[in-house]
Input
Amino acid sequence: MIRNLAAVAAVALFSVARPVLASDLLVAPTRIVLDGNSGGEVMVSNTGDKTTTYRISLVLRRMDASGQINPLDEALATPSDAVALDIINYAPRKITLAPQQPQTVRIGVRAPPSLAPGEYRAHLLFRAVPDTATVDAPVPAAPKPGQPQGMSIALTPIYGIAIPVIVRIGKIEGSATLANAHLTPVADGGRVTVTLQRSGNRSVYGTLDVLAAGSDKPLATVKGLAAYTEVAGRDVSVTIARDKLPVGALTVRFTETDPAGAGAVVEAKVTRGA
Output
């Protein structure tokens, strides 16, 4: 018997503040930081050529030591994780947009006075709803006698973007440092790897630059780099093309662009491996 199946594609996750496009879905900004019971908004735009419905939900994500952001089962959530789902509100939860049409999604916080100081985070997930005409496509006719039987799979991609919504309650402190910066030769040049370390009760967020000695022009830059409160540090790797790799010393610089970081800058010298 031949079956017609609809499969769901993976959801793309982002933590940068600039607009992000996934297929025909544009979201801006892609990082929201709220203090206390303040509010914010996100602009969602359909950049495609057909009317599309998007479902919006609040989900939990966790960062690991490599910087990957992975789904977190609510059953495994810590009390801090669970609180984020309770205090963050948003509307609407489902929108239908004509081609090139934008709409605002409003975000609010309702934090009880007894909530402990700290940073609470969930991710707002924007996901396109598949066309029912595609998902409910008719089952193909049965094969004729003598023809091989098998399975037919129709893939229906569901594109989405998940953005962090960070709520800061009470006194928040944090700082960043860089450690273990080293250069490893690779086939097309060199790979600089460094650990972005975090301390305090807030995440750190900023721009990482790799610089040659005596130069303020970066050889490589990573913008929108975050280390969330569930990790004490995360590894970051940047590849520099062979023709741009200098012979002299290298420095890695991290500049906080989160207002809470007040533009703090930390640096580390890069050691060269064999």
User: Anything to note?
Assistant: The radius of gyration is 23 Å. Confidence is low (pLDDT under 50) at residues 1-17. Helices lie at 79-87, 132-135. The longest helix spans residues 79-87.
